[in-house]
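Section 3.1: Structural characterization of target chains.
Under the original work plan, the team committed to producing a structural model for every single-chain target entering the pipeline before any wet-lab resources were allocated. The record below documents one such target. The sequence was received from the expression subgroup and is listed exactly as submitted; it comprises 198 residues.
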Amino acid sequence: MKKVNSVEEYIETNTHFGEELAILRDIINATELEETLKWSAPTYCINGKNVVGLGAFTHHFGIWFFQGVFLKDEHNLLVNAQEGKTKALRQMRFETKADINKDLVLTYIKEAIANQKAGKEIKPQRQTKPVVIPAELEHVINTNAELKSGFEALTQGKQREYCEYITQAKRKATKQSRIEKITPMIIKGIGLNDKYKN
């Protein structure tokens, strides 16, 4: 997507739907939403929270609702662009200017504003990889109660760093010497890379 510096430039860049985008922009700007530019696309916010965005694609244009999952969608106008992946975002797509029902669009936008004010939102969840403890380290942890409680007290990130440190060693002897080196650190609750972090 081409980087643009204003909503006007975005509309000019998408000339194939320029007039249509201008119509949708006017509908949105008739509300209390604040117009901004994020990710090189027109985005409309309230109290710093993204509510709707405006977009043009090759064969369609439309509005996306950042928390569209909470809209009633009584007219079945909303689309989940990535079924199974996208949790909150929903799109209202149009192919021609004639498809735009101004009153209906405004009704959906007003509902989205009310939902945002009511605090209805799905926050993106951070993906965390499970900690895979290498067999050599697991054996030592299970035979040393102090080491076991120290390891369990560490954050998942620190646990993962120690596990990767052992896994990266190729030779059994290297793995063993690394385990001996990290044992007192784990017991003290020190992360492997703490000295590099400020």
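The chain has two domains: 7-117, 135-196.
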